[in-house]
Design brief:
It is globular, with a radius of gyration of 19 Å. The strands form 2 sheets. The chain has a 6-stranded mixed β-sheet with strand order 6-7-8-3-9-10, sandwiched between helices. A 4-stranded antiparallel β-sheet has the order 2-1-4-5, covered by helices on one side. The chain has one domain: P-loop containing nucleotide triphosphate hydrolases (Rossmann fold). It has about 280 residues and is of the alpha/beta class. The chain binds adenosine-5'-triphosphate (ATP). The site of adenosine-5'-triphosphate has 12 residues, from strand 2 and helix 1.
Length: about 280
């Protein structure tokens, strides 16, 4: 494979070597020493067993730096959603480790993992999954209610302001556009002030102009608020809003682009999609 201009093959080097004996983000005593928000260390995940087994992740080592925006791309079935779910503690790898801010998620019992997901991880999907009978403000307050807290008006107003919806607090989803509903979903994911926002195809259901607005907002959350975002997308234009793109093919790292342009992302994707299996 010929590397395009800024394709960094670091993923085939140290960063994706799979050695993982002293992962970045921890020292030998396990203390956090770097700015790594999430690290995957030789992660494997297989669905099913026997002849029907599908290896979705086949030994992925990757790290996501704090305060950065990463897009994850790859052909259909390459393992992107599985990667996101394992990184967010929604799914457990069969082997390898997922370390978030010094905490090894793979070693956590279910109760602790649930608390960590609730307090430190935000997740948004292509479908907005809002409660139709609740206003924007009430939808955003839900995670705080679930955590046994009474949401403060100012707290909710601040996060709605962060996503550009200060004037829609009292609106129900049916009175909002798709882009506005996705912003509410993001505000709901951000209200607990998570370390990382994981987004699986967040603009997949939006038209291109609305997508651009949402992506610009996400970019602003990284640049102005220091949020860490990891986003799966099929769209090279969406990926170009990220600081870097990591590519997967057949459950393995398949290259990386820093400061991506939509054209370079599309060209790399075309190479992956035409590569023999
Ligand atoms: N729950 C499951 N049971 C069985 N196989 C699964 C399951 N989830 C995913 N897979 C398989 O694992 C592989 C990776 O799936 P995954 O959804 O992570 O890929 P993806 O890159 O996100 O795909 P797409 O771009 O089509 O959404 C695929 O072959 C898929 O069919």
């Amino acid at each position: 494979m010929t590397a395009p201009g800024r394709l960094a093959d670091a993923m085939n080097g140290a960063e994706a070597s799979g050695t993982g004996t002293n992962p970045a983000g921890t020292n030998t005593t396990g203390t956090v020493v770097s700015d790594v928000a999430v690290r995957l260390d030789d992660v494997t995940r297989t669905y099913g067993s026997g002849d029907g087994a599908v290896t979705a992740l086949a030994g992925v080592t990757l790290e996501f730096a704090r305060g950065t925006f990463t897009a994850v791309m790859g052909p259909s079935g390459s393992g992107k959603s599985t990667l996101l779910q394992c990184a967010a503690g929604l799914d457990r790898p069969d082997s390898g480790r997922v370390v978030m801010a010094g905490t090894d998620l793979t070693g956590l019992r279910e109760t602790k993992l649930t608390l960590l997901r609730r307090d430190r991880i935000g997740f948004v999907f292509q479908s907005f999954n809002l409660m139709p009978s609740l206003t924007a403000e009430q939808n955003v307050g839900l995670p705080l209610h679930l955590a046994g807290r009474r949401p403060g008006k100012a707290e909710i107003a601040a996060v709605l302001r962060d996503v550009g919806l200060a004037d829609r607090a009292g609106h129900r989803p049916s009175r909002m556009s798709g882009g506005q509903q996705q912003r509410v979903a993001m505000a709901r994911a951000l209200v607990t002030r998570p370390d990382v926002l994981f987004a699986d195809e967040p603009t997949g259901a939006l038209d291109s102009s609305t997508s651009r607005d949402v992506l610009t907002m996400m970019r602003g959350l990284v640049d102005q608020r220091g949020l860490t975002i990891v986003m799966v997308t099929h769209d090279p234009v969406a990926a170009s809003y990220a600081d870097r793109v990591v590519f997967l093919a057949d459950g393995r790292p398949a290259g990386r682009l820093d400061r991506p342009t939509a054209e370079a992302v599309a060209a790399h994707m075309a190479r992956l999609e035409s590569a023999p299996c």
